[in-house]
Amino acid sequence: MGAGHTHTANGHSHDHGGGGHAHAPADFGRAFLIGIILNTAFVAIEAAYGWISGSMALIADAGHNLSDVLALLLAWGASVAAKRPASGRFTYGLKSSTILAALANAGLLLVAIGAILYETLHRMAQPAAVQGETMAIVAGIGILINAGTAAMFMRGQHDINIRGAFLHMAADALVSLGVVVAGLLIIWTGAAWIDPAVSLVIVAVIAWGTWGLLKDSVAMSMLAVPKGISEAKVRGFLAGLPGVAAVHDLHIWPMSTTETALTAHLVMPGGHPGDAFLGDIAEELKHHHRIGHVTVQIELARGDCAAGC
């Protein structure tokens, strides 16, 4: 049914055509490669200068950037795996690996938050002298690298896996800006407490971004209806179709971070309406509800398919 391959039998209709891949993962391979190389080099530089200058803010930012490198690797690996064809064992392919990657990225951020917070509290209890000039210069370089990397993922916001990579990089750019400000304030005031205070702000920024990513990735891993799709509106659309007396066993779930599937039973006492009717359902769900993989079963009466469903 729909624009691609159509199969109807015993009142069932399955659409796996063009609409099923309308939001297939875009190829961000080059963006991932450039981002990983730049951020790996910057992590080494930032950590080294953070140690030399005594800046906990720089070290905290380096730790966050390291988690982002791992996050980029996970997201890249998942986006590649999602393109692998289905097999007898993995009949959906490895599309759901993108959901697992998003969940793992949220976990990495939680670990980074804990490590940075522990060291920051220790530094607040025992303040140390900090080189503000080094902080400002190194963090300024970080703004350019992180903002540039984030820009490469700007067009992939519909994919939570790519959105996770974008949020990591965008947050890093903001964090680096905070470190620059902290460095300048230390130069002007000489107050050592500014450095760990900025580290706490960094932790808060990371935690804010992590919560959204964690909430969305957990929901998707639990097969919740994807954000942006209303189960009530889909049910209302199906129930309002000519000849439909009832809708039951409606399920909507994410196959990956970009592809959504639906199954539903339509009770139609008047009998099977034909393939054109089913094709129209698929097109409507694809274009207006962003659901590309559709399976619809027609029943003459709910719970009784002996008459020919």
Largest sheet: 5 strands, mixed
Q: How would the global form be characterised?
A: elongated
Number of helices: 8
| Oligomer classification | single chain
Strand content: 5-15%
- Give the radius of gyration: 25 Å
SSE order, as H and E? EEHHHHHHHEEHE
Domain module tally: 2
Question: What would you say the CATH architecture of the largest domain is?
Answer: Up-down Bundle
* Strand element count: 5
CATH topology of the largest domain: Alpha-lytic protease prodomain-like
CATH class of the largest domain: Mainly Alpha
Fraction of residues in helix = 55-70%
Mean pLDDT: 80
Helix- and strand-based class?
Answer: alpha+beta
**What is the straight-line distance between the termini?**
18 Å
Low-confidence stretches: 1-12, 16-25, 305-309
Structure explained in plain terms:
This protein has 309 residues and is an alpha+beta fold. The chain folds into two domains: 6-20 and 226-299, Cation efflux protein, cytoplasmic domain (Alpha-Beta Plaits, 2-Layer Sandwich), CATH 3.30.70; 26-221, Up-down Bundle (Alpha-lytic protease prodomain-like), CATH 1.20.1510. The protein is 59% helix and 10% strand. The protein has eight helices and five strands. The protein has helices at 29-53, 56-81, 97-125, 132-152, 160-189, 194-221, 231-239, 275-289, and strands spanning 6-9, 12-15, 246-254, 260-267, 293-299. The protein has a five-stranded mixed sheet, covered by helices on one side. α1 runs antiparallel to α4, α2 packs antiparallel against α5 and α2 runs parallel beside α6. The longest helix has 30 residues, at 160-189. The protein is elongated.
